[in-house]
Amino acid sequence: xxGAARSTRRQAACLGLLAAAWVGCATIQDPPGGPPDFAPPIxxxxxxxxxxxxxxxxxxxxxxxxxxxxxxxxxxxxxLILLSPVTEEVxxxxxxxxxxxxxxxxxxxxxxxxxxxxxxxxxxxxxxLDSTRTxxxxxxxxxxxxxxxxxxxxxxxxxAAIGAxxxxxxxxxxxxxxVEADSVGDFVLAAIPPxxxxxxxxxxxxxxxxxxxxxxxxxVTVQLDSTLDHVLWAFAQDTSGPHMREVSDLDSxxxxxxxxxxxxxxxxxxTEIQVFSMPDTIPVSVSAVWVQEVYDSVxxxxxxxxxxxxxxxxxxxxxxxxxxxxxEVDSLVADSAAAEIAAPADTSVSTAADSLAPEISRxxxxxxxxxxxxxxxxxxxxxxxxxxxxxxxxxxxxNVLGAVAESQRLLTLPEPxxxxxx
Length: 422
Description:
By secondary structure, the chain is an alpha+beta fold. It has three domains: 39-142, Immunoglobulin-like, CATH 2.60.40; 144-236, Sandwich (Immunoglobulin-like), CATH 2.60.40; 238-305 and 371-417, Sandwich (Immunoglobulin-like). Helices cover 22% and strands 33% of the residues. A hairpin with a 4-residue loop joins strand 16 and strand 17. The termini are far apart.
C-alpha cells in the first residue's frame, strides 16, 4: 500500500509539472513596448541657441534628446564633447535625456565659445548618433564672421587623417580653438576671432586629445582676416634621425634596407650607402639606390623583359619542333591570329568598372602632388653576392625633418643548398 501511495503521488507530481509547462507555453507573447527600436537618439534642442550673445552667462550649456542617453557612450561622455577655447577641466554631466556642459571655473567673459557634440552618442539600445553638432555663442561682444578651413593629410600613411585633432591657437593670447577632421580629412573652424594663429593638426592615435611622442603632426603660423584655407601634412617629427633596423637580400644583386623612421622624399639621392664583403672589408660597388616606387617600376620592367625572353625561347622551341614535324611556322602564326580575330576581347566589364569609379577626394588629389614617404630603401649592387658570405652595410640617412643618423648592419647569406646524392 505504501508503495502504491508513493506511485500515486509521483504520478500526480508529474501531471502537475506538465500542467505548469502547458500553462507557461500558453502564456508566451511578444515583449511589451511595441516593435524593436533601431533609431538613434534625436537631438531636440540646445540651450543656449547657436549665435547667441549672452553677457554674464553662467548657466550650463544643455543638449536635450528625445530619449534616455547611455552615459557610457564613447567610453565616457566627456570624450564626445569638444569645448574651445578652454584651458581647464570641463564638467560634462549626464541627466538621463540631457547632457550638460560647463568649464570647471565657469565661462569667461567676452569670449566666443565653440561646443561640439561629436559622433557616438548612444541610447540604451546602443543606437548611435552618427553626426556632429557645433554650437557657437559669445559671453560678450559680437561673434566674428570668419572661416578657417583646410584638410589634414596623414603623409606617412598616404591617406586622409580622419578624426585628426586640429588646433588653432590665437597669438599671443593662447586661446586655442579645436575641431576634429571629418571622414575625408577636411576641417572647418568658423566664427573665431581674426588674428595670428598657430595652426596644427595631430593624428591622435590614442584619442586623448594630446600630442604624444611619435604621433604624426604638422603646424604652421597663419594670419586669419576673414577666410583662409590651408593643408596640413602630418608626419612624425623626430630629431634623432633614422637608423637601420633590418637588412635583407631580395636576390643576389638587391638589398632591402628598413629604417626606424620615414625618410625624406628625395632620400634615395641623398643617402650614402656603403657595402663591404667581410671579413676582409672589401668594398662592393653600389650601382643604384631606389625608393619603393622606383624599385616597383624597375621590377615591373625587369619582369616584362624576363617574360619576353621566355616567350622568345618558347617560340624558338615551337619553331624547332614544327620544323622537325614538317609543319610550316607561318601557318601556325596565321591560325593564332585568326583565333584572336574570331574571339574579340570583351570590354563591357572594364567599361562598367570605369563608369563606377569613385570620385577622387581632395586628399587623394593632394597626395598625387607630393612623393610618398617610406622607411624602405633598395640597393642594387654591381656584382652578385656570394652565398654563405657576410656583408657589412653602412648608411647615412635623413628623415623628413632633416635629422641625419649613421648606422650599420651585418648581413649573413645562407649557405648554398647541397643536392641530395641519394
